[in-house]
Amino acid sequence: MYIDVHAHIDSKEFDQDRDAIVNECEITIVNAGVDLESNLRSLELEKKYKNIIAAVGFHPEFIKDKENEIEKCLELTNNAKIISEIGLDYYWIKDSELRKKQIKILSLFLERAEKHRKTAIIHVRGGMNDLLSLLPSYKVRFAIHAYEGSIRDAKRIVDLGGLISVPPVLIRDKYRQEVVKEIDLDYLVTETDSPFLGPEKYIRNKPCNVSLTIKKISELKKIEEKEVIQRIRKNFEEKILP
Ligand SMILES: [Zn+2]
Fold first, then answer.
1. Rounded distance between C-alpha atoms, residue 97 and residue 205, angstroms
2. What are the residue ranges spanned by the domains of the chain?
3. What residues bind a divalent metal cation 2, as annotated (predicted)?
4. Cα–ligand 1 centroid distance for 228 (angstroms)
5. From ligand 1's centre to the CA of 99, what distance in Å?
6. What 8-state DSSP symbol labels residue 71?
7. Kind and range of the H or E element at 32?
8. pLDDT score, position 91
9. pLDDT at 202 (0 to 100)
10. What is the mean pLDDT of the chain?
C-alpha cells in the first residue's frame, strides 16, 4: 500500500474524477488544506474517503491576501490529525516584513503541533535557514514536503528527527536524486503535491504516481521496490501518524 503524505485532492482540478483518482490504487493520502475553505474541504474529504487523512494549515503564500483567515485555520487544526500546509515561502514572498510574519504564523502552528502532539508537514522554499533555526525550539514530529534543498540541509533535518518527503518529479530531477541517494530510507517518505509537481511538466499529478517515485528510489538505493514500499509505510506509521 502506497503513501502520499501531501496532496491537494480538494482542488478543482479533481472535480471531474475525484472518486476514480482516490481509488485508483491502494494508497493512503494526506490532503493538505491551504486556506480556510480548503481546510474545510480537506476535513470533508476525510469523512468521505476512508483512505484520506485531513491536514489543516495555512499556506505561507497567502500571507498577503488571507491573513484574516489565520485565526480560524489555527482553530480548525483541532479537527485534523496532521498540521499542513504550513511553512515559509521566500520564493513568492520577497518583502522582509511579510517574511517575518510568515515566521510568526509558522510558530503559532508549530506551538499547536507540539501542544496537541500532531505532526507538521512543512513547505519551505528559500527559507531553510530561518526554518532550521526555528525548529529546535519545538518538540514536534515533522516532514519537509517536496524537499528541494541541499544534501547538507537534508542531513540537518534528519539530525532534528525530521523526514524528507519526495515527489514524483524525482524521476526527472537529478538534484533530488542525489539527496535520495544520501539520505537513509528510514527518513524518506513519498508524496505527490497533486495536482502539482508531476512526473511530466504541465500534466496533472495524481496520488498513484507515488509508484513512479518508489520505482526510482528502489533504483537509486538498490533496494527492492517491495521493501521500499513497506519501509515508507513504516516511516509514515511510526513518525507521522503514530
Ligand atoms: Zn502543497
1. 34
2. 2-240
3. 123, 145
4. 23
5. 18
6. H
7. strand 27-32
8. 95
9. 87
10. 97
Residues 192 and 170: beta-carbon distance below 8 Å: no
SS3 of 115, please? helix
pLDDT one-digit tens code per residue, 65-90: 999 999 999 999 999 999 999 999 99
Amino acid identity, position 140: V
Q: Is the pLDDT of residue 195 over 90?
A: yes
SS3 119: strand
How far, in Å, are 5, 129, 196, 211 from residue 206 at the CA level? 12, 31, 8, 11
Q: Is 123 annotated as a binding residue?
A: yes
Classify domain 2-240 by CATH number. 3.20.20.140
For range 87-111, the mean pLDDT = 97
Instruction: Write the burial class of residue 97 (CB in 10 Å: 0-12 exposed, 13-18 middle, 19+ buried).
Output: exposed
Q: Give the separation between CA 60 and CA 99, rounded to whole angstroms.
A: 9
Ligand 1 centroid to Cα of residue 190, in Å, is: 13
Residue 59 is assigned to a ligand binding site: no
pLDDT tens for each residue of 126-181: 999 999 999 999 999 999 999 999 999 999 999 999 999 999 999 999 999 999 99
CA 185 – ligand 1 centroid, Å? 22
Q: Are 147 and 177 a contacting pair, CB within 8 Å?
A: no
CA of 155 relative to ligand 1 center, distance in Å:
22
Distance of alpha carbon 163 from the chain centroid: 10
Q: How confident is the model at residue 199 (pLDDT cuts 50, 70, 90)?
A: confident
Cell, residue 51: 483512505
